[in-house]
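Title: Request for sanity check on Isopentenyl-diphosphate delta-isomerase prediction

Description:
We are preparing a figure and want to confirm that the structure record we downloaded matches what your pipeline produces today. Could someone re-run it with the sequence below and paste the raw structure tokens into this thread? We only need the token string, no images.
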Amino acid sequence: MNRKDQHVSLAKAFYHTKTNNDFDAVSFVHQSLVSAKLENVDLSTEFSGFHLDFPFYINAMTGGSPKTKEINQNLAIIARETGLMMATGSASAALRDPAVADSYSVVRKENPDGLLLTNVGAGRNAQDAEKVIDMMQADGLQVHLNVPQEIVMPEGDWDFSDWQDNLKEILTTIKKPIIIKEVGFGMTRETIQQLLALGAKNIDVSGNGGTSFTQIENTRRKKREFDYLDNWGQSTVISLLEAKSFSHDGHILASGGIRNAFDIFKALTLGAQSVGISATFLDKLMSKGVDETIAMIESWKNELKHLYVLTNCEKTADLIKSPVIISGQPREWAELRGIDLKQYAQR
């Protein structure tokens, strides 16, 4: 089976095993009197010149085979009908084999006026990045960081020595907006500081709690030597706590383990300017089809409006003023890392 097809099948298979994650450790301080009006709620958000009507988007998933072409086509239809931004999975497969380029370009064909991102790994240079942007007529680029996945992947690339040089070249050469993102292993403040120093303006901290690519790649091995890495990394909640001190230096995005509208809302409250979703959309699409996925997204939009009012907010940017209590593992992490959680509880 094609590696990209294996990734999709395993992501779908493992999805329902991820029932709990660190978003469950985030609680809101209830306010009994609110003045916000539902009709005044504006879900839009902005970062790096992008204006999104809604504070969540379809994050990178797949591409590189006939099967994943169909998935990308359906995701593009969903993005078109819901008005969501969409990112494809890594387009490196198309750089290696131009015959599969249509599994990515189909997204632009299906959604000619949508806001679309393409994706490459940090092992690629600026010339490669330009190629995939042109191939998909993309509005922006994601560059993904996936060291643990490469380590466990049977055919992984284990030389990461040129990544920082590649990132700096891409960030200084490519004129379109660029998002540097993890692939589900989270980020620390040290990593974020390094990325900002390289010139990054948009950072998706993408923590664990959802799809685990170490688990997927380990399942693809003849022997599961790396079972102990299935949950490697930091959660999205912990990563957002780590990112808090850089909120004025760049745009922080979040993904990883987003199960519903409430998780989106929590991520926004913790400082994310927009939230990417992959596995939940993929599972709904593959299980129930395009129409039910669209219906779920429309329901999420409505739920978010009500959640904004519940916390007396009418704009996405106001959510970071909502007081929250952090418990469980994120609290333990914060205490050991010297992160002041009172700032969240007393806002």
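Thanks, this matches our download. The two ends are 51 Å apart (CA to CA).
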